[in-house]
What we know:
Blueprint: H1 3-18, H2 22-31, H3 36-44, H4 63-75, H5 84-88, H6 91-96, H7 99-111, E1 116-120, E2 136-140, E3 143-151, E4 161-167, E5 181-187, H8 188-191, E6 196-200, E7 210-220, E8 224-225, H9 231-267, E9 269-270, E10 273-274, H10 279-307, H11 313-338, H12 349-357, H13 366-377
Parallel strand pairs: 1-4
Antiparallel strand pairs: 2-3, 3-7, 4-5, 5-8, 6-7, 9-10
Helix pairs in contact: 1-4, 4-9, 9-10, 9-11, 10-11, 11-12, 11-13
The structure holds flavin-adenine dinucleotide.
Amino acid sequence: MPEHDLREIRDAVAKLCAGFPGEYWRELDRERRYPTEFVRALTDAGYLSCLIPEEYGGTGLGLSAAAAILEEIQRSGANGAGCHAQIYIMGTLLRNGSDAQKRKYLPGVATGALRLQAFGVTEPDAGTDTTSIRTAAVRQGDRYVINGQKVWTSRAEHSDLMFLLARTTAREQVKKKTDGLSVFLVDMREALGRGLSIRPIRTMINHATTEVFFDNLEVPAENLIGVEGRGFRYILDGMNAERILIGAECVGDARWFIAKATAYAGERRVFGRPIGQNQGVQFPIARAYMACEAAALMVERAAQLYENGQPCGKEANMAKQLASEASWQAADMCLQTHGGFGFAEEYDVERKFRETRLYQIAPISTNLVLSYIAEHVLGLPRSY
Ligand SMILES: Cc1cc2nc3c(=O)[nH]c(=O)nc-3n(C[C@H](O)[C@H](O)[C@H](O)COP(=O)(O)OP(=O)(O)OC[C@H]3O[C@@H](n4cnc5c(N)ncnc54)[C@H](O)[C@@H]3O)c2cc1C
């Protein structure tokens, strides 16, 4: 998308976010409450349907626009974690679903009438080793019966639908461990209390994340996405978009921290002069700025490749890693620049500091990105 169109989107998103200032996010954070009003405003403005093609009721703007939207949300000081998944996880359905499934669900997802923002992949005993998951789906006539447990299924209590990755063939019975996994679209409105239960996990950030339990949950066979046993591939297909967009959010966070620190360093006077006059205070801000700008270029490059349908696994992984490191560098710098006041809730620094730390762990931890680069880009032996 041309830069001037992105500029318009950025300005409009920034204007919307200005209606949700620090006090709003602080109060939610304190109570670990979901940002219902904020998500509603973004939905009504059409921003969350930016990756859904127009034929299904979305705005079809593409990944650069989605990246610009999420970056601006974070840059305003907001926490977009409550809504980012509504933008991109429907990609699994768009790319791999049948025509009937797409017609049934995508228009509702586009208007926000259907909230599709929960994705159950991670399990307590499998961790990053996704092919070791134990949640099993067994076909019985026209249904699958599902048993098992997921952990860290974010927004499950604020979603009507969830994607679920489950084993349909035991790991011992498949040639490749990545075979035999399948993706299901679970209608949680029907499933809650009938084999599906959700338990919230309180965390150091306001993220509405949960544990989800399946106890003989019956899912219609027509809710299988794509071909049985090919689910791992479908999940992989969605990862590049997710990594690029998380990278954009981290760039937004880094820009917020840098602006906040710069302003404070200019205002705060100690020893009769602004603290920002000291090189010891200036240089970390300058370093964080450079790291952020470099990461932003990688996010932009990855998004362009993705939009042009070109391979972008390397760039998407590097974008996510560099941006999450840049945002953490900026967070640490911003806290240091604020001295003791960085710990006071009213400055929002401590909240954003906690929030941005997540992105070195989820959706993929830094070590696993480094392993990917070492193995798939540099050709080093596989380490795990
Ligand atoms: C707030 C939050 C929200 C989340 N939301 C979701 C969600 O919506 N859906 C979902 O499915 N998941 C979600 N996750 C899960 C997230 O994707 C995982 O936490 C993440 O992928 C890491 O997995 P793990 O926690 O099991 O760590 P582990 O796999 O147990 O790893 C622990 C540590 O060991 C390192 N490690 C492991 N293996 C290796 C190796 N071979 N080489 C080097 N280092 C290694 C890792 O890098 C990590 O630092 C969320 C997590 C959090 C905290």
